[in-house]
Task: inverse folding
């Protein structure tokens, strides 16, 4: 019988089990599990390279920069997208040999889910802060994520060799914000390697070894997975109790299905098979799992022979915040795109999709993402890794519609918004944003927030130069150009992080684009009434330049319901029907022109307009 799969939210409701004595064996005492958390561009990947170098985890002939960023997209953009585990061996100054299981994590707000999953497999974390920039918005977010996961934090100040570094000021910020004493801060330069050995020693001394709470059972936490086309699903697991070995039968408690393990291994950082994965260790296993839907991130792995009665808590389910439609350019590639999305979803559990269709674009998928960068990365991975040519519709968020009968409906696609007479109000998702900027830029930042229909809730001084603004604003307003404008106004110094803050009623309307009197679904969007006219005029101006002229004029209109708020016209091109008339009576020419005019009237009445593919792409690229 399949056992129930517990997640974080229902773990509290689980029946209380008799407490087994947690213990640390001599073998566990030599293990340290940790990750690095930091704001984007504070030097996580560079520090990771130094740690791998000092522990000889990678042979010298194989070393390169960004060692753990094995995705082409990561190396090209200089950012970490996926969390990467690796095992290292370190001989400490006391002569003891320790096994380090290290997980490199992303820094961007869109990939914070990767950070939370990594922290669940660790007992400690290095909080890396740039000594030239100080505490940034995502530094704060990741630090509190670690605190909530009860993870031991070691603060590390990077780039202390830079002339503009102000280590003492940054140490005071860390003490003020996280209550971590200044004396615990380590100063390093990941680029030169100065102070990195002290970091390794601090990992040994400060991070607690793993403990086994139920020594007689087998319990492992699935924290990531990927798909191998030849061997099926590869499951990343952190073992909390017991051990798994090749040939043994294990059970995934989420699906209740049993499998025989074909291979067990660790990351060095490549896959390296081993005899067994034991309590406290991080590794992977393969069990010929062909159906990717059977693997669930946050699941508990246990023994088929003696299944555990204490499933691990798992993870909080992530809810997508940004939605867009993905369609194949060639309709024949629909099945290929579907297969690619299945494999991508296995490697990225925060990505969701479902089938949808459009009159203009055919069959495709409605996809949910954590943010705009997440959306951009997924689309780029589909193009590069899976060779899919796709079109993406305009990104939107999930609106909550209160119907006349008192029921509530969630709408993630403008096409699904009911008629205005059918509902009472529309609520839009709002976010709480933490915006850190220089003190002399606070006026520009406040204007930017208010332009986006936001409010400033609180301002706090971080030090003599920088302030942190706490704001509330609609998620829809920060989707497209907010980050670009933020960096432009602050000359690159400002940073932001945000979290969900519920829903708020807004004066929102559905904007339709009509081409020759017919609404085109792919161009529809939900906007605030105050911005509807400007957005409608913008789309009309783009389309009038791209839709080719016909033999009759074409009206392109923006409408809210039955009210037209903007219009442009594609002028008709005229065939020279009098070209063959050489001299003679002028009435002959007039007769031909009148005949052409009558023909154009009939065309306009019955003619259909073909909209080229470039028109859809051009509208998607126009920023509101």
Result:
């Amino acid at each position: 019988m399949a056992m129930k799969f517990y997640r974080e939210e229902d773990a509290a409701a689980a029946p209380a089990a008799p407490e087994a004595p947690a213990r640390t064996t001599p073998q566990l005492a030599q293990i340290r599990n940790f990750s690095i958390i930091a704001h984007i561009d504070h030097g996580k990947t560079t520090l990771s390279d130094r740690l791998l170098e000092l522990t000889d985890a990678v042979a010298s002939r194989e070393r390169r920069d960004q060692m753990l960023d094995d995705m082409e997209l990561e190396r090209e953009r200089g950012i970490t997208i996926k969390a990467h585990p690796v095992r290292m061996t370190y001989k400490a100054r006391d002569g003891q040999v320790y096994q380090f299981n290290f997980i490199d994590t992303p820094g961007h707000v869109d990939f914070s889910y990767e950070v939370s999953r990594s922290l669940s497999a660790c007992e400690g974390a290095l909080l890396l802060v740039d000594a030239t920039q100080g505490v940034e918005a995502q530094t704060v977010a990741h630090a509190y994520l670690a605190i909530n996961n009860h993870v031991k934090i070691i603060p590390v100040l990077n780039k202390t060799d830079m002339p503009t570094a102000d280590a003492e000021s940054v140490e005071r910020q860390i003490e003020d914000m996280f209550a971590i004493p200044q004396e615990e801060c380590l100063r390093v330069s990941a680029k030169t390697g100065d102070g990195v050995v002290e970091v390794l020693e601090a990992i040994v001394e400060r991070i607690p070894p793993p403990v086994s709470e139920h020594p007689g059972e087998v319990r492992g936490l699935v924290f990531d997975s990927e798909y191998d086309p030849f061997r099926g699903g590869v499951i990343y697991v952190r073992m909390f109790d017991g051990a798994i070995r090749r040939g043994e039968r294990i059970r995934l408690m989420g699906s209740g299905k049993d499998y025989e393990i074909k291979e067990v291994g660790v990351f060095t950082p490549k896959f390296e098979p081993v005899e067994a994965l034991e309590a406290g260790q991080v590794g992977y296993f393969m069990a010929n799992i062909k159906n990717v839907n059977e693997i669930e991130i946050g699941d508990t792995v246990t023994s088929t022979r003696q299944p555990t009665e204490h499933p691990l808590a798992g993870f909080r389910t992530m809810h997508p915040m940004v939605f867009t439609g993905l369609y194949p350019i060639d309709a024949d590639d629909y099945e290929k795109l579907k297969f690619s999305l299945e494999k991508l979803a296995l490697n990225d559990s925060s990505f969701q999709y479902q089938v949808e269709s459009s009159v203009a674009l055919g069959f495709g998928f409605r996809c949910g993402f954590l943010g705009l960068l997440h959306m951009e990365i997924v689309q780029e991975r589909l193009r590069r890794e899976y060779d899919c040519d796709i079109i993406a519709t305009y990104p939107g968020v999930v609106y909550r519609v209160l119907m006349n009968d008192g029921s509530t409906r969630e709408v993630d696609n403008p096409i699904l918004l009911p008629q205005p007479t059918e509902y009472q109000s529309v609520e839009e998702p709002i976010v709480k944003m933490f915006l850190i900027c220089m003190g002399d830029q606070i006026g520009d930042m406040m204007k930017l927030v208010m332009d986006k229909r936001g409010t400033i809730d609180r301002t706090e001084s971080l030090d003599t130069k920088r302030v942190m603004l706490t704001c509330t604003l609609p998620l829809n307003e920060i989707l497209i150009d907010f980050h670009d404008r933020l960096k432009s106004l602050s000359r690159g110094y400002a940073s932001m992080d945000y979290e969900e803050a519920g829903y708020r009623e807004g004066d929102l309307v559905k904007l339709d684009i009509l081409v020759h009197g017919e609404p085109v679904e792919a161009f529809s969007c939900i906007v605030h009434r105050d911005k509807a006219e400007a957005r409608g005029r913008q789309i009309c101006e783009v389309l009038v330049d791209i839709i080719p002229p016909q033999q009759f004029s074409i009206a392109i209109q923006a409408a809210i319901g039955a009210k037209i708020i903007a219009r442009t016209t594609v002028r008709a091109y005229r065939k020279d029907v009098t070209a063959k008339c050489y001299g003679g009576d002028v009435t002959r020419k007039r007769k031909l022109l009148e005949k052409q005019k009558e023909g154009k009237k009939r065309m306009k009445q019955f003619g259909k307009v073909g909209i080229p593919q470039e028109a859809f792409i051009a509208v998607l690229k126009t920023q509101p």
Summary: Residues 28-206 form a domain with the Rossmann fold fold (CATH 3.40.50.300). The chain has five domains: 8-19+216-303, 28-206, 322-395, 411-506, 510-621. The chain is about 25% helix and 30% strand.
